[in-house]
Design a protein that fits this description.
The complex is a heterodimer.
Chain A lengths: L4 H13 L7 H10 L22 H19 L64 E8 L6 E8 L3 E4 L17 E5 L1 H10 L10 E2 L5 H4 L5 E8 L4 E10 L10 H7 L2 H7 L17 E6 H13 L3 E4 L4 E6 L8 E9 L13
Parallel strand pairs in A: 1-5
Antiparallel strand pairs in A: 1-2, 2-3, 3-4, 4-6, 7-8, 7-11, 9-10, 10-11
Chain B lengths: L2 H8 L3 H23 L2 H18 L9 H23 L19 H13 L2 H11 L5 H8 L3 H31 L1
Helix pairs in contact in B: 1-2, 2-3, 2-4, 2-6, 3-4, 4-7, 5-8, 6-8, 7-8
The chains are: A alpha+beta, B mainly alpha.
């Protein structure tokens, strides 16, 4: 018996069908990092106002008015997060360590805190092209809590690392912008002397079980210039995220006994495939349970997981403190169970903490 | 393909383009992998193609043609990677068969013969085979994707399949001889 052309074609098609159809994380990461720095080639017919080809005339007029207003606001210093020169926080999305020299920026006085840092952090995944904080791994020196002024509660945390990075967040006051949210994780860089000064400024017994108290927003008014490698407050861009998968019931005191494999099986297949066999990341806060299923992904992998959950119809997205997704589980016998995936940024010591627990 | 996303990316919307990369990038890499038969070269070709797509996107007059146009840029990137392979990489790796149960019709001998025969084809011929038999594009669509007349796509496909069929016959011959003994 000999093969016909049709048989041959079937064999070729079957042979071509073998293999992956997924974009590798390396390519995704490289493309997402490089394309924003690449200028698009605009043809002459779309060079001046490319939007006009698809916008209605009224939209174009509106856009022109908006641009004029924006320019006026920037000129008046009213544009959120935009600051021309001066001291304090500036919007700089790509943190890069600079040599350890004294900053020439004069420190503000203790009573003049510049609150513009509240507008620059990222909730959820960093924007495309943002450069991860460097180096990836270093040692945690000490954790501080940020005090809530006039109250007994804490509002955020500050993490001090051996290479001088001070990474911190703040929960904005409830009256600032409802719903309550955090600033996202922020980053500044201290010198070796600055590390010691900050530790000396913190309040409380370092031998105590609870973290000591420090308000990073006040530091520019408290530290000398040579305590800073870079006092600029920048968004902290992690090199990866832990996807913490857990099941909760409406009654928060009830804990699920689902195993990691069972939780992964309840996720959409594309999401489960991304998480299967990923390493567990240590939760230094202990907030995700005794055996947390917090699985490490690089930023590209986290973007894929984000897309997979969104595509599968999970509720969520960037929330008040982080990227959060949730879906109801069909567990009618046991109660109203929900499966949640929270994206925690991996910190420079390779662990996560609870971004929503301040 | 969502033409609104394409139009937004044409206007320079980075989030829209990132979504296109996530949604469409896997398929591009799969096509590159099948044309080049090498995972690393396919990754490089896909990366080059995606960056070229971003750069040239405003020049695409019909957003509905995004997918076909992207394959054209991908095949160009495959050409470049194939040239690099000739210059720098004499040791070729076989494409991974991570799930061999998907090709029940192809035995080991078939696969080996197909690999060898396919590698003797030019990138242009391989591209036509992959677009037609893997993506199920019609010859008119293949021609449109590659910027060649449908007739040229047809003749390239005929030539390529003839070579692959000959390879499969050669693979079947020893087995037949053994069976007839």
């Amino acid at each position: 018996m000999t093969r016909t052309d049709l048989d041959h074609t079937r064999v070729v098609r079957a042979w071509l069908a073998v293999g992956s159809e997924e974009l590798s994380p390396r390519v995704l990461d490289n493309v997402l990092r490089e394309f924003p720095a690449t200028n698009q080639d605009r043809p002459h017919w779309a060079a001046a106002w490319p939007q006009f080809s698809s916008f209605a005339f009224g939209t174009a007029v509106g856009a022109a008015v908006a641009v004029t207003v924006a320019i006026a606001m920037i000129g008046a210093g009213l544009w959120p997060g935009y600051q021309r020169g001066g001291t304090g926080a500036t919007v700089t999305p790509s943190p890069t360590a600079v040599p350890s020299t004294a900053s020439s920026t004069p420190s503000p006085t203790p009573n003049t805190i510049d609150y513009s840092y509240r507008e620059i952090g990222y909730i959820g995944l960093p924007p495309i092209g943002a450069t991860p904080s460097d180096p990836t791994l270093t040692e945690l020196v000490e954790t501080f809590w940020r005090p809530r002024h006039g109250g007994p509660y804490y509002q955020g945390a500050a993490l001090l690392y051996a290479d001088g990075r001070l990474i911190w967040n703040e929960y904005l006051p409830p009256d600032a912008a409802p719903p309550q949210r955090s600033t996202g994780w922020l980053e500044q860089t201290l010198t070796g002397a600055g590390i010691e000064l900050v530790r000396a400024l913190a309040i409380g017994d370092s031998a105590g079980a609870r973290p000591r108290i420090l308000d990073p927003a006040e530091l520019p008014g408290q530290l000398p210039d040579d305590a800073w490698v870079d006092p600029t407050v920048r968004p902290y861009v992690p090199s990866g995220f832990a996807a913490c998968v857990f099941v909760t019931e409406e009654n928060p005191s009830t804990e699920s006994n689902m195993t990691l494999q069972e939780m992964l099986a309840a996720l959409p297949r594309a999401a489960a495939d991304l998480l299967r066999d990923r390493p567990r990341v240590l939760d230094s806060s202990g907030s995700y349970g005794t055996d947390p299923a917090c699985l490490g992904l690089d930023v590209a992998g986290a973007r894929l997981l984000d897309a997979a959950l969104r595509e599968a119809g999970f509720d969520g997205g960037p929330s008040r403190f982080m990227l959060v997704y949730e879906t109801a589980l069909d567990r009618s016998v046991a109660g109203n169970w929900s499966l949640s995936v929270w994206f925690e940024p991996i910190l420079p010591d390779g662990t996560i903490t609870c971004s929503g627990c301040g | 393909m969502n033409t609104e996303l394409v139009m937004a990316a044409q206007r320079g919307d980075e989030e829209a383009f990132a979504t296109l990369v996530v949604v469409h990038g896997g398929r591009l890499q799969a096509v590159a992998h099948r044309i080049l038969r090498d995972g690393e070269l396919a990754e490089d070709a896909t990366q080059q193609a995606l960056l070229r797509i971003w750069k040239s996107l405003p020049k695409l007059r019909d957003p509905a043609r995004f997918e076909a146009w992207s394959y054209q840029l991908l095949v160009r990137a495959c050409h470049a990677e194939a040239r690099r392979m000739r210059h720098w990489s004499p040791a070729l790796r076989l494409v991974e068969t991570d799930n061999p149960t998907h090709d029940p019709l192809a035995g080991v001998a078939d696969r080996d013969q197909l690999e060898r025969a396919f590698r003797t084809l030019s990138v242009d011929h391989r591209a036509v085979v992959v677009l037609h038999h893997y993506l199920d594009l019609t010859l008119t669509e293949v021609g449109a994707a590659l910027g060649i007349p449908a007739g040229t796509a047809g003749s390239r496909l005929h030539y390529a399949m003839k070579a692959l069929h000959a390879a499969l016959d050669a693979a079947a011959r020893p087995a037949l001889q053994q069976a007839s003994r």
